[in-house]
Prior knowledge:
By secondary structure, the chain is of the alpha/beta class. The protein has 13 helices and 22 strands. The chain has helices at about 10-25, 40-50, 80-95, 115-120, 155-165, 185-190, 220-235, 255-260, 305, 310-315, 340-350, 380-390, 410-420, and strands at about 5, 30, 55, 60-65, 75, 100, 125-130, 130-140, 145-150, 170-175, 195, 200-205, 215, 240-245, 265-275, 275-285, 295-300, 325, 355, 360-365, 375, 400. Strand 9 (about 145-150), helix 5 (about 155-165) and strand 10 form a beta-alpha-beta unit. Shikimate-3-phosphate (S3P) binds near residues 82, 154, 159, 307 and 308.
Amino acid sequence: MLNGHLRLPGDKSISHRAALIAALAHGSSEISNFSTAADCASTLSCLSQLGISIERKENKVIFAGNQKLVAPRRALDCGNSGSTLRILAGVLAGHDFTAELIGDESLSTRPMRRIIEPLELMGARIEATDGKAPLKVHGSSRLNPITYRLPVASAQVKSAVLFAGLNAAGTTTVIETLPSRDHTERLFNGFGVPVKTTTDLSITLDGPARFTGGSITIPGDVSSAAYFVAVAMLLPESQLTIEGVSLNPTRAAFLSVLTSWGADIATTDLQTERNETYGTINVRGGLTGTAAQPDRTLSRAMIPSLIDELPLLAVVGSQIPGGIRIRDAAELRLKESDRLATTAANLRAMGADVEEFDDGLAVSGPAQLHGAKIDSHGDHRIAMAFAVAALIAKGDTEISGAECVAISFPEFFTLLDSLSKR
Ligand code: S3P
């Protein structure tokens, strides 16, 4: 069983955006509970190389404010972080210098045309090789505002255009096909850049925008919380409380999915910080009433708000009577690994029955998983999803490359160990 109380390091997506806003703001900013993820350290180190002075005090990150981004002397290394590379490209698009963005092997295989197209429409010029990183961004402080319909549901692309829009003269509009995580819109409004969102999924802001920094405490990372919620629900007699965690509706959708699959989950103490909702998650172990839920397909509009939790939901799905299906999720093939393939192969290695489609998976359940050798493919979310599977499996599991959890959640194994009682 899993027992105890947790508070988690700050949300990765919110931390990236808060750091970028603080770097561009007039006046100083103090970010508390900043993410401990290697990805967010990549954002901070790129900003330092762009001439932004950043002071670190325990879990606080302090920005002096009134600083100007300057041309970096060497390539900006975004590591494994898609959010760093794509959103920072949007920031750089609006500055009068050239900067090169590079990433690790995985990031260098991921599609970048999705940001190159809108940023070039706005007037930046971006060199790439076959639409992939390294990217050379030739920015301009005279960007054109555009109205852009996103061809893929991607918060990173939306955010790249909105950050570029801060430096465009006029109204920038992004139209989404399906709602994706909305931290950029919420934080812009929270820091005084009016952003309008409408029910037809269009988001507008007027540039050039001037805004003032300030203090913010980043709520705990709900995607990190997901692994603990899953372990607690799958191990009977568990009782877990996670406090101060982000409950942004575009991120916390997995909680209602797990509840509909029979989990006992409650959220309490809802509060807001700079337009972001956070609160407490309470989980009691064991499943109830799953037989009454015949269709457990995750598809279409649900996918963007579950995107990072889908490998974990596939693992949980192997324990649900009747199993689960995931469709319309081809984007998963373009993440840190091909997450449809790596999830299917690893679940099969543990004895689950999985069918793989171009855009999803069908996982039969309930299955008795057995220990196996798991390949994380250097993908943090695969390593953590299969650490959850290992806890409910019979026998020992070995996860290769498990240290990659540090990309989003360096404390993962230590915390899991301290809360689990076998
Ligand atoms: C993120 C958006 C999502 C998500 C990623 C973080 C963000 O990617 O998978 O982990 O911070 O905006 P896409 O925008 O590619 O869907």
